[in-house]
Amino acid sequence: MGAYILRRLLLMIPTLFGIMLINFTLTQFVPGGPVEQIIARLEGSGDVFQNISGGGDVETQSQTGGDDRYLGARGLPPEFIEELEKQFGLDKPAHERFFKMMGDYLRFDFGESYFRKISVVDLVIEKMPVSITLGLWSTLLAYLISIPLGIRKAVKDGSAFDTWTSGTIIVAYAIPGFLFAVLLIVLFAGGSYWRIFPLRGLTSDGWEQMSMIGKVADYFWHITLPVIASTISSFATLTLLTKNSFLDEINKQYVLTAKAKGLSEGRVLYGHVFRNAMLIVIAGFPGLFLAVLFGGGLLIETIFSLDGLGRLGYEAAVARDYPVVFGTLWVFGLLGLLIGILSDLMYVFVDPRIDFEKRAG
Fold it and tell me: Which of 127, 165, 179, 308 is 20 to 30 A from 258, alpha carbon to alpha carbon?
């Protein structure tokens, strides 16, 4: 197993390199870089994309004499523009900037945000708890609901219970998380009906002065709706996965043999079937957590006014804050690859009969 893990760790290097190279290359063709952002703010134009789209009128273009500099820069001293480019490192060729960035990232030096005057590491650490909260609690809630429900559906396969729960699951899977979040706000956060839960944030004002029990209660009061909205689609998928896994095991010969020996249904189900059937479900926990953490995080965080990694990445992309964009991309990519290895280790832990080294050989 050690050789397999070592190979996977070594493969992370070219994988991360490829991810960063593709995204870095794409940004070279995206208009409205950090220099244009600052110039647009200084000029008071508000929308930098209007300045770079070439959408100015003919009279304005003729006055510039066909000047191909940044449109927002016209009228500003060229020395000022050059200083901005030097400050952001944009005065160097693209390939030189890329390899310097990769060298820094290998040392986990992600630099400083262009516009927030804070290091990227500190910024990610500051926003991480919100995203971890959503991802972890949503994954745990999905498992707590899906495993018992999936087992029950497998035992009652073809019954009325199985039919109507399947219909409910299909509807839940079909509803986008962000749309369900809006529905929850309308119903339970003072949108049009009841005001039971708060609309924004993870804690109330004066949270620091609350007792320990009060802090815990306030925390769960705030995360209830965001967690439910994040759980809706993963819960549906996991329930069907659990049911199908149990159905596959229930129909195997060893189950029939155990029943023939007179063992009770509960003893057969939880003493023999459970471990084999739960292999794929339990081992998939890291992957599901990663999917919930990054998938749909932006919309959920925006709807509930949560300041997490999803909003951070979106705002950085809009502002062309490249250190934050690429720094978070590196962290997310590295985290995703590590969780992939962790998923494999979970398979081996749940079922020691699995040997990835022999499969790789």
Answer: 165
The pLDDT value recorded for residue 293 is: 67
Digit-coded pLDDT (tens) for 319-344: 888 888 888 888 888 888 888 788 77
Compute the CA torsion angle 269, 275, 276, 277 (nearest 10 deg). 60
Sequence-ordered alpha helix ranges (H) in 44-93: 48-52, 58-64, 78-88
- Provide the residue type at 167 as one letter: G
Which two structure tokens, joined as six digits, stand for 330?
């590196």
Distance CA 327, CA 11 (A): 20
Most distant pair of Cα atoms in the chain: their distance: 94
| Phi, psi (degrees; rounded to nearest 5) at 338 | -65, -40
Residues with Cβ within 8 Å of residue 342, at least 6 apart in sequence? 286
Residue 336's φ and ψ, nearest 5 degrees, are -65, -40
Instruction: Say which CATH topology domain 120-360 has.
Output: MetI-like fold (1.10.3720)
- Tokens describing residue 23: 């995204």
| Confidence (pLDDT) at 75 | 53
Domain boundaries, the chain: 32-90, 120-360
User: At 76, is the pLDDT very low, low, confident or very high (cuts 50, 70, 90)?
Assistant: low
Residue 189 burial (CB < 10 Å; 0-12/13-18/19+)? buried
Buried b (16+ CB within 10 A) or exposed e, 204-231: eeeeeeeeeeeeeebbeebbbbbbbbbb
How is residue 225 written in tokens? 């709706």
Structure tokens, 290: 């990663």
Q: What is the DSSP string of 87-126?
A: HHTTTS-HHHHHHHHHHHHHTT---B-TTT-SBHHHHHHH
Please return the burial class of 353, using the count of CB atoms within 10 Å of its CB with bins 0-12, 13-18 and 19+. exposed
- The burial class, CB within 10 Å (0-12 / 13-18 / 19+), for 184 is buried
**What is the separation of C-alpha 194 from the centre of its chain, rounded to a whole number of angstroms?**
30
Contact 291, 234 (CB under 8 A): yes
- Please give the structure tokens belonging to residue 213: 């029990």
The CA-based dihedral angle spanning residues 177, 181, 183, 187, taken in that order and rounded to the nearest 10 degrees = 150
